[in-house]
Amino acid sequence: DAGHYLCDFIYFSSLAHLWKQQRARKVVFFHVPLHSDAESLRRGVELVLTLIRSIVESELEREKDSAST
Questions:
Q1: How big is the chain by its Cα radius of gyration, in Å?
Q2: How far apart are the C-alpha atoms of 47 and 53, rounded to whole Å?
Q3: What is the mean pLDDT of residues 47-62?
Q4: What distances in angstroms separate CA 46 from CA 8, 12, 54, 55, 58, one per listed residue?
Q5: Distance (Å, rounded) from C-alpha 9 to C-alpha 27?
Q6: Which end of the chain, N or C, is surrounded by fewer C-beta atoms within 10 Å?
Q7: Which pLDDT score, from 0 to 100, does residue 1 have?
Q8: Cα gap 57→52, rounded to integer Å
């Protein structure tokens, strides 16, 4: 399964790269499906924006919690 193989490779290579640099291993991998019709693209844009917003909100909340302790 080339898709599974490549996705895993990209994800774990990203983690390994950060580990070698002794940086936090925070990696997000978003699989982009093959479908390119207008509805799929609209839904994909909505999902990506929601994912980005959620990550930012989560990080801001984490920073707020660590600052208060």
A1: 16
A2: 10
A3: 95
A4: 24, 26, 12, 14, 18
A5: 13
A6: C
A7: 58
A8: 9
End-to-end CA distance of the chain: 46
CA distance linking residue 13 with residue 29, whole number of Å: 11
Residue linked to tokens 């940086």: 23
Q: Which two tokens stand for residue 49?
A: 């924006």
Q: Which residue has the higher pLDDT, 33 or 17?
A: 17
Asked if 30 and 51 touch (Cβ cutoff 8 Å), the reply is yes
